[in-house]
Each structure stands twice: as structure tokens, then as C-alpha cells.
Specification:
single chain; 299 residues; alpha/beta; six-stranded mixed beta sheet; five-stranded mixed beta sheet; 12 helices; 40% helix
């Protein structure tokens, strides 16, 4: 197939403030775009996961923000951009929270098997990590898949006894009276021997020419660095995308959590963690792909 050359690059990212933060300098032409024009769409991460999985012929975007879980199924069509990833750590990551009833159930046996869990997307990395955790413990999970912004409501109404938090809601559960019983970033750090937890990544269409992919990747890296150097200016832009009502202090805290050195550039240890993530998931048949999952990053 002939490599595609173009000057208009379409990008889809999540409404999270950290995702928008990464792309500010591209969207507002704060850096030299070398003749490229960027156009942006935004939707919650599970919608983007589903869109890229279903777009087997002609995808509507050249660059997608997707979950690492989803990347396992599209690695032959898309390539990971080294800049722009979201990684959990010892101090932050997806949380399993419970309401009062869930806390009673969990405290009896300390088991996930007793809980009915609201999970914001089957193809999210948080869901895959929770399932890996359960397999390691010999437990089972009873999921109710929903949108990320429905988790608190389902807990409030007693439809579920537990909820898996991704996105900015990780900073809001305590004020709503819920309790954290499992920190997946912390658990993965211990399980992996000190590695960060793979959550989200930006991927680019392999049909684009190598030179174009390299150019886009370089400009994304420059955009992230611009944001970090011009934090307040970039935060104001990013706040327009947030759907969770965080105050400015919490929004800054959230961006500090998920726009870090791994976001600037995935390290060798981060790549090691991604490989372990996939290998462990395949061991438990949580990911079923015939070929080795490609980790040839750009650039």
C-alpha cells in the first residue's frame, strides 16, 4: 500500500483535562506546525476505543487516544506515539470504590467476588488490570459496564455495590461518601516490581508515511513540553474539556498526576511494563490475539 501524505491531521482525544493539556500547543498553533493543520474531536475513552476497533477500513481520525487494552487489537493498524501516554504509579491510578453496602460485603472476605461492580468500559486498561488482579487472587468479577460518568449515580442508587474509577472522578469519591478498597496503580507497582501501570496512549495510523508519523510525534512531544513550561495558560484551555466539575486546584493536581515524565516520553521501564501487562493478560486469556503485539514506537 502506498504511504499516505497529507497536511491535515485529525486527532481524537478524551474530554479529560490531561488529554486536552497535551494538545493545546497544536490546537492553538503555539509551536511551529511545519505546514500541518490539526483538527480535533473529543469523546470519552471507551467511545474512542469502540470507534477505532470498528473502523477497519477508513478511520475518521489519524491519531487516537486509546486504552492500552484496546491497542492490543489494533497494533497492526496503528503505532504507539512515544509521547502522550498516561501511566499509573505507586501513588495514583484507577480505584475500586464501594458504597456502605459494598464496604460491608468487602470487609467480610476482602474479595471482589462479593461485589457487583460498575465498570466504565470493557476495553479500558483499568478493566483489564482489575481482571488481572482478580485472576491473580483466584476471584471472579461481576461487571456492569457503563459510562464513566454513571458510576457515582449507580453507587448512590444501590444498583451496584462497587465502582471502578477512571478519569478525574478519582479525585471526587471521598466527598461523595464512598470508600476506596483497591488502588490499582499501587497494586501493579508491587506486582510488577516497581513499574508504572499502562493506562492510555496516543496511536497513529500506520498508513501515513513514516516521515509524517515522525513529524506528528515530534510535534506532540513539543506540545506537551510547551504545556509544562506554560502551565497556567495551558490549564485554562484544558479546563474547557473537563466534564467532572473539578475545581482549579484539583484540576492542577490531576494534570500533575497524569502529565509526567512518562507522558513526555515512555521509558524503557514503561515499555517493559506494557509488555508485562500484555503477557499477563494473555496468560489468563483476557486478551486473545494471534500475533505478538507490536511495541515499535514512533519515533
Amino acid at each position: 500500500m502506498t504511504a499516505i501524505e497529507k497536511t491535515s491531521i485529525k486527532v481524537a482525544h478524551s474530554p479529560d483535562s490531561d488529554d486536552a493539556f497535551m494538545f493545546y500547543a497544536l490546537a492553538e498553533k503555539k509551536i511551529d506546525l511545519e505546514g500541518l493543520d490539526y483538527y480535533f474531536g473529543s469523546s470519552e475513552i471507551e467511545n474512542l476505543n469502540k470507534l477505532v476497533l470498528s473502523s477497519t477500513e477508513k478511520a475518521p481520525y489519524d491519531v487516537f487516544a486509546v486504552s492500552f487494552h484496546t491497542y492490543a487489537y489494533i497494533h497492526d493498524r496503528y503505532q504507539i506515539i512515544r509521547s502522550g501516554a498516561s501511566m499509573g504509579s505507586l501513588k495514583h491510578g484507577p480505584k475500586l470504590i464501594v458504597n456502605s453496602h459494598g464496604l460491608e460485603l468487602f470487609n467480610k472476605n476482602k474479595s471482589l467476588s462479593d461485589l457487583y461492580i460498575a465498570i466504565p468500559g470493557a476495553m479500558t486498561s483499568a478493566n483489564l488490570c482489575l481482571n488481572i488482579y482478580a485472576k491473580e487472587k483466584g476471584e471472579t468479577i461481576s461487571p456492569l459496564y457503563c459510562s464513566f460518568n454513571e458510576v457515582f449515580k449507580l453507587l448512590d442508587e444501590g444498583v451496584v455495590s462497587a465502582g471502578l474509577l477512571i478519569h478525574e472522578s478519582q479525585l471526587q469519591f471521598q466527598e461523595k461518601g464512598f470508600h476506596s478498597v483497591l488502588e490499582l496503580g499501587e497494586w501493579w507497582h508491587k506486582f510488577s516490581g516497581g513499574l508504572n501501570l499502562p493506562l492510555g496512549t496516543n496511536v497513529i495510523d500506520r498508513n501515513l508515511s513514516t516521515d509524517l508519523r515522525v513529524k506528528v510525534a515530534k510535534q506532540l512531544s513539543e506540545s506537551i513540553n510547551f504545556g509544562l513550561k506554560n502551565f497556567e495558560e495551558t490549564l485554562t484551555y484544558a479546563r474547557n474539556f473537563s466534564q467532572n466539575g473539578l475545581n482549579d486546584d484539583d484540576a492542577k493536581r490531576y494534570i500533575d498526576m497524569y502529565v509526567n515524565q512518562s507522558t513526555v516520553s515512555l521509558s524503557d521501564d514503561d515499555i517493559k511494563s506494557i509488555k508485562l501487562f500484555y503477557d499477563t493478560a494473555k496468560k489468563y486469556e483476557l486478551i486473545k490475539v494471534a500475533s505478538e503485539i507490536s511495541l515499535d514506537l514512533i519515533p
